[in-house]
Amino acid sequence: MQAFLRNEKYVCIAIIFLMAALLGSYILLQPFQTIGIAMVVAIVVSVCITLFFGLVGGGIIAMVSAFVLGVWIIWQTTTGAGQDWLLTQQFSLVAFAIFMIGLVLTVASASYIQQVFSRFMQQQQAMQQQIDALVAVDVTTHFDNEKRMQQEVAREIKRIDRHGGCFTLLFLSFDHHKEFLQAYGEKEMQHLLQALAHNVNQVLRTSDYKYRFNDSKFAFLLVETPRKDVERVIEKLQQQLTEHTLLNGKKVTLLFHISFDEYNQHVAPATADQFISQLEQETIFYAM
Questions:
Q1: Taking the alpha carbons of 232, 235, 239, 240 in that order, is the dihedral positive or negative?
Q2: Where do transmembrane segments lie in this chain (predicted)?
Q3: Are 40 and 21 in contact (CB under 8 A)?
């Protein structure tokens, strides 16, 4: 909100002007009793609609209100049905003139405020999208994050449901993640993750998608890879990942568990959330 007020220096003036116009309209129209209060209500409603839905919505309400109140005034002054003490023909025209001036000024002010606020919200959304794009990539492994995985799995499911094909989603869980971090420290953990990412990139194709699902779990979306071909991928991962060289040159053996499942046009349709959740709950894991 501070950026909103700083970037649009006239917003405060517009808000003050709007409040003054609303207050002035009430003071000037209140003596006209019933018709005056109806005019004030019409102005307030038009302003609220403009602030929430823009000039088009507020303008429509304003025109309808002006038409209805104008017809009401004409009917009362011509038939003598009006009982308000100031509601003569002359004062009816005065009331309607005040109403129209107040309506135009307040709706115009509200429209300006709404436009500025809309631009501010669009800028905020654009900034948030840029931030999301930046944080979508893990800085250590350069793998995408869980949110990006959800989006891309959903996209692949839609593609397969429409055009056929298949993909396999594979989870790779690093056992004893906490123990390794406690034993060797953050620097060695960063080195391990970077080495893991490098080795995974050596094994998987550039067309496959790699994700850091959480601190100790990784996910790989293997495009157009049926379940029967995944065993070869697991063997290659085992060769590359089981043995790790620490920064001091010492070699350690790592333990991973893998779960995977295939999605194709022959399985029951599922959403990305359902498919991922089902795979996470798999009871059969492949140790490596």
A1: positive
A2: 12-29, 35-53, 60-78, 90-113
A3: no
- The reply to whether 207 and 174 lie within a common domain is yes
Give the residue numbers spanning the domain of 47: 2-135
Question: How many domains does the chain divide into?
Answer: 2
| The last residue of a domain, from among 85, 102, 135 | 135
Cα atoms in the Cβ-side hemisphere of radius 13 Å centred on 163: 6
Indicate the burial class of 201 (C-beta count within 10 angstroms; 0-12, 13-18, 19 or more).
Answer: middle
Residue 75, pLDDT score? 77
Compute CA distances 278 → 84, 142, 145, 215, 260, whole Å.
Answer: 72, 26, 19, 20, 10
Tens-digit pLDDT profile for residues 57-78 = 888 998 999 898 888 877 776 6
Q: Say how far apart CA 154 and CA 271 lie, in whole Å.
A: 7
Any idea which residue has 């953050």 for tokens?
Answer: 186
Question: Residue 243, SS3?
Answer: strand
Among the candidates 103, 135, 167, a domain finishes at 135
The reply to whether 140 falls in a domain is no
